[in-house]
Structure formats: C-alpha cells, structure tokens
Design goal:
75% of the residues lie in helices and 0% in strands. It is an all-alpha fold and 272 residues long.
C-alpha cells in the first residue's frame, strides 16, 4: 500500500514520461490506433462481449500501473500503455452505441465534451497542456485521462462518418487524412501553437487509424479479418518500439542531460 501511495505522491518528480515528438511517434501512434480498433473488434466477437470489456479494462489498468511505476520514458512500457488505451478506449466508445443504443453523433459529442472537461481541469490545475511537462504523477494522470478521451472520441467520430454519414471506411480514411493535414500545415506554415497542433493531430490520428483497420479487416472493405489485422499491426509496433529502445531516437532530452527536475542533491547523486 505504501509503495502504491508513493507512486501518486504529488511531490514525486520524474524524468519526462513522454517521448520526443518525432516521425516515429506519429507512426507508432497511428499503428496503435489501428491495432486498438481491430483488437477490440476481435475480442468482442471472439469472446462474450462483457468478458471482453472486463479483460480490456484489466489490461488497461495493468499497463497504466506499469507506466506509473517508472521514473522515465521507457518505450516498451509507454507504448504498451498507449496500445491498451487504444483497445479499452475503443470498447468504451462501442459500449455507448452497441450496448446502450446511443447514436454515434451523441457519443461523439459526449466524448468531445469529456475531452474538453479533462483539458480544462488539467489547465486550471497545472497551467499547461504541454506533453513536455509530464514530470509528476498528477500531470501524468491528466495526460492519460486526455489520451483515453481522445481514443474514445476518435472511435466514435470514425464510426459516425463511416456509418451515420455513409462515407464508409475507405471514404473516412480520405476524410481524416485531409483533416490531419490541418494541424500539420497550421504548425509548419501558419504559426499554429505547438500544443494545439499536437492535440489536434493526436485526436484525428485515432479515427484515421481506426478507419484503416476497419477497411482492412471488415467484409465491407478488404475483409482480412480483425484477428489478422490486429496481429500485423501489433507486430509492426513491436518491431518499431524495439528499434526505438535500442537506438534511443525518441528519448526525451532531459534523460540525456541530468537528473529529474526537482530532485535534491542526495537524490540526484543516487540517480547518477
């Protein structure tokens, strides 16, 4: 109990818990969104849906716990957490529609409001939404709440465009590919703030990746099957994350230059 309490000690300081934002970040993020969608579909249709949701919740909780126990960014731990958020976030969105009969437009609006509430609370408490500021358990808790909300929102939005609006999975791919160009152009050409551009792109990669996974896996698209699609994406994630762990290409700068911020002399010496 004491060790668990220490993980959430507001005075506990760590290295940055989020990787540097490189091309690799967006590649793996997109793969996890696609893998989360296909894995969720495969579990729900292979197992009893209620059991699948419980297993998804347990895997999510375990992954987040492992991530919180670390004092720095570790590729395998971080991306395992993101992948499990992808699976459980998909289930959370699907429960509203499939389990409770909530229309996709309503679930999209609901999760959009949830995300706004998370961002507002995060900013009011911490004064920033920057992912480069994830040095305390409280900020990390806000970060993962935001990530989970973006996955649920993106799943609902992708289903909205594919089904309610009738674009289908392939049409949704093109729609979200065009939308994701907005933060890219805004940041690189028109001076959009880095925080806004990041979260804008982060939200949109979810429905983009999910649409790709659905198009590849479902009979309405290529029809490869959710199980095969999930395995292929999971294997690709594993290969890239192993590469990142070996090369350190996305290691946060603060892990390379000194002890975690806020550590006293004795702790800093121990870290060294």
């Amino acid at each position: 109990m004491n060790s668990l309490r220490s993980l959430f000690d507001p005075d506990r300081r760590t290295y940055s818990k989020v990787p540097e934002i490189t091309v690799w970040f967006w590649v793996v993020k997109a793969l996890t969104t696609a893998m989360g969608e296909s894995t969720s579909d495969w579990l729900v249709h292979t197992l009893v849906p209620e059991i699948a949701v419980v297993l998804g919740a347990i895997a999510f909780a375990v992954a987040i716990y492992i991530q919180f126990t670390k004092d720095r960014y570790i590729p395998a731990c971080y991306w395992f957490a993101v992948a499990m958020v992808g699976v459980f976030g998909t289930m959370a969105a699907d429960v509203l529609h499939v389990g409770l009969g909530v229309p996709y437009i309503a679930s999209t609006i609901f999760y959009g409001i949830v995300l706004i509430v998370v961002f507002r609370a995060w900013y009011r408490v911490e004064g920033t939404l920057s992912i480069h500021s994830i040095h305390t358990p409280r900020r990390e808790a806000f970060y993962w709440a935001a990530v989970l909300s973006t996955f649920a929102l993106g799943t609902a939005a992708g289903d909205l465009t594919a089904n309610t609006l009738g674009l289908g999975y392939f049409g949704s791919i093109w729609l979200f590919a065009a939308i994701i160009a907005i933060p890219a152009l805004g940041y690189f050409r028109f001076g959009m703030g880095s925080i806004l551009a990041f979260w804008f792109a982060y939200v949109v990669t979810r429905p983009l990746g999910a649409s790709v996974a659905d198009w590849l896996g479902k009979a309405e698209g290529v029809g490869l099957g959710a199980g095969l699609v999930s395995f292929v994406f999971a294997a690709a994630i594993a290969v890239i994350v192993r590469h990142l762990a070996r090369t350190g290409k996305d290691t946060p700068t603060d892990q390379l230059v000194g002890p975690p911020p806020g550590l006293g002399p004795e702790a800093a010496e121990a870290t060294a």
